[in-house]
């Protein structure tokens, strides 16, 4: 029997990152941050001098990613080590997210990361955060959540996050970036961002993290 999986898909800034970390902690399950793998592929490509439109070279980069996720105290994001170097904060930049969404449109790149993602499914269970967790990577997941929020709300959250981290940002530029990235993620032919047919959609606009977490926990306990 395979370990259970809760998939949480949705656009950037929907609160997925925070909610999946809390959910994994509450359940005592593993966490897959699949977006980090796309971000790491983009970052490793740039480091290796690979152009972000060179599909076959990118497939190679993705297939040979030397990455480890190191556990940190509960509630903190895992430390991300790429080829021996701590890139935890570097992969969180807007540029890296944008580059990630460019390499993520390529089906062969996605294929190269597929098994690596499925390998995270281990006892006692997995919380999987991404865009296609419920539709492609874990189509048999017993619990599927699609977490969304208005673009304005997502931009506002991202703005606060970046400000807190001491990054100087412009709100309208951020909103525009979010719209462009959503558009690219939803309109690509390879694993477009959309709720699985059997996903429960949660709109987190106006909800607190706690309220969103409670709804996710309710979905898990009903399964
Ligand atoms: O979730 P995060 O913002 O880290 O994801 C970065 C980018 O990686 C997304 O905009 C998306 O293009 C891509 N991605 C994806 N499939 C996933 C996770 C992320 O295509 N499962």
Automatic annotation (TrEMBL):
UniProt binding sites for ATP: 10-18
Main location: cytoplasm
Transmembrane segments: none
InterPro entries recorded: Cytidylate_kin, Cytidylate_kinase_dom, P-loop_NTPase
Cytidylate kinase domain boundaries: 6-221
Enzyme class: transferase
Catalysed reactions listed for this entry: CMP + ATP = CDP + ADP; dCMP + ATP = dCDP + ADP
GO annotation, biological process: nucleobase-containing small molecule interconversion; pyrimidine nucleotide metabolic process
Segments forming a coiled coil: none
Pfam hit, one: Cytidylate_kin
GO molecular function ontology, one term from the record: CMP kinase activity
GO cellular component, one term: cytosol
EC number: 2.7.4.25
Location(s), subcellular: Cytoplasm
Superkingdom to which the source organism belongs: Bacteria
NCBIfam families in the cross-refs: cmk
Family as reported in the entry's similarity comment: Belongs to the cytidylate kinase family. Type 1 subfamily.
Protein name: Cytidylate kinase
UniProt gene name: cmk
């Amino acid at each position: 029997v395979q370990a259970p999986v809760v998939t949480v898909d949705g656009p950037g800034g929907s609160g997925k990152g925070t909610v999946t970390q809390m959910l994994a902690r509450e359940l005592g399950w593993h966490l897959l941050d699949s977006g980090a793998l796309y971000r790491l592929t983009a970052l490793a490509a740039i480091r290796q001098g690979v152009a972000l439109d060179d599909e076959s070279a990118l497939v190679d980069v993705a297939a040979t990613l030397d990455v480890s996720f190191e556990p940190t105290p509960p509630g903190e994001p895992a430390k991300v080590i790429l080829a021996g170097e701590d890139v935890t904060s570097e992969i969180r930049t807007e540029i890296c997210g944008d580059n990630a969404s460019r390499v993520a449109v390529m089906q062969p790149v996605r294929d190269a990361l597929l098994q690596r993602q499925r390998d995270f499914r281990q006892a006692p269970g997995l919380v999987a955060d991404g865009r296609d967790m419920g539709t492609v990577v874990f189509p048999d997941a017993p619990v599927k959540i699609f977490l969304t929020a208005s673009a304005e709300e997502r931009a506002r959250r991202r703005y606060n996050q970046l400000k807190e981290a001491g990054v100087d940002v412009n709100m309208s530029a951020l909103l525009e970036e979010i719209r462009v990235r959503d558009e690219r993620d939803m309109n690509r032919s390879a694993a477009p961002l959309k709720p699985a047919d059997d996903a429960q959609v949660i709109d987190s606009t106006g909800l607190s993290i706690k309220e969103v977490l409670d709804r996710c926990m309710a979905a898990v306990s009903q399964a």
